[in-house]
Amino acid sequence: MEARRKVIHALPMQDHPDTTFPLSARTLGRRSFIQRLTGIGAVASVALQETLSAKDTITMRTIANPRLFTFIGGDSGAWQVIARKTVIGEPLPTVKRLDIVIGEVKELPENALWKLSGVTSNVRYTTRAEKDQLAAKQVTIGRPEATHAAMIPIRKSAKWWSMTQDERRAIFEETSHHVKIGMKYLPAIARRLHHCRDLTEPQPFDFITLFDYTPADAAAFEDMVADLRATEEWKYVEREIDIRMVRDVK
């Protein structure tokens, strides 16, 4: 049996070529292993099915979450920090640059002062009609021309989290019009929301939102942020940091 066992040391992720899935000390049957790969891409699954025979077993680690992002504040990274504002609550230490890493970073790099983590996830307070409208207009983070960015981590109060989903939805959109406000600024401003409460380890924030935009759309971004902070929803925010950045252009 041992002679027939195949050990895979790293599986490249299709969407992020520089990222690998570390392998673990759990032994799975072929079918269980393939099922664990759901969500990493059809190409990877097909390739593995072609590689493995029906009687093979695989020793592997838990597959790393490709939706996990780590934000590292320090002296290195592609983004130069040009402004930092503590909107409410405890500040973060001032840093010169921000590095955004796909995956987990267990230890702070040299000359880094802090790291924040969050995962992208499904929408929580959006209706089907709103989701379709957003999908038709929004663009993804990382456009070459979007050399300006903002990272805004926030934490909401215990009162917010004590409410039910429908109660939070009523404040989020029916009262505050969060989606409607954001829709006004699409596709000029790209946004990616990261959920921190979905992680196992306690995090200092509930959400980290990353925005990017062109220099010409900087004023529109200021208007959008001001509109959101004036809503009923923001009365439940107890910590918020606003970090502005520009990307190095080679």
What does this molecule look like?
By secondary structure, this protein is of the alpha+beta class. It has two domains: 2-60, no CATH class; 68-247, Alpha-Beta Plaits. The protein contains seven helices and 13 strands. The strands form three sheets. The protein has an eight-stranded antiparallel beta sheet with strand order 9-6-8-7-13-10-12-11.
CATH class of the largest domain: Alpha Beta
Radius of gyration: 21 Å
Q: Give, in spatial order, the strands making up the sheet with the most strands.
A: 9-6-8-7-13-10-12-11
What fold name goes in the CATH topology slot of the largest domain? Answer: Alpha-Beta Plaits
Catalogue the unreliable spans: 1-28, 30-63
How many strands appear in the DSSP assignment? 13
| Fraction of residues in β-strands | 25-35%
Specify the overall morphology: globular
Pattern of helices and strands: EEEEHHEEEEEHEHHHEEHE
- What is the CATH architecture descriptor of the largest domain? 2-Layer Sandwich
Contiguous helical run count:
7
Which secondary-structure class do the elements indicate? Answer: alpha+beta
Please bin the fraction of helical residues.
10-25%
Mean pLDDT across residues: 81
Please indicate the count of domains: 2
Task: Report the biggest beta sheet as strand number plus sense, adding barrel if it closes.
Answer: 8 strands, antiparallel
Distance between the termini: 53 Å
In short:
By secondary structure, the protein is of the alpha+beta class.
Per-chain topology:
Layout: E1 6-7, E2 10-12, E3 20-22, E4 26-29, H1 30-36, H2 42-51, E5 57-60, E6 68-74, E7 79-88, E8 97-102, E9 114-119, H3 128-137, E10 148-156, H4 158-162, H5 165-175, H6 178-184, E11 190-195, E12 207-213, H7 218-229, E13 237-247
Parallel strand pairs: 1-5
Antiparallel strand pairs: 2-3, 4-5, 6-8, 6-9, 7-8, 7-13, 10-12, 10-13, 11-12
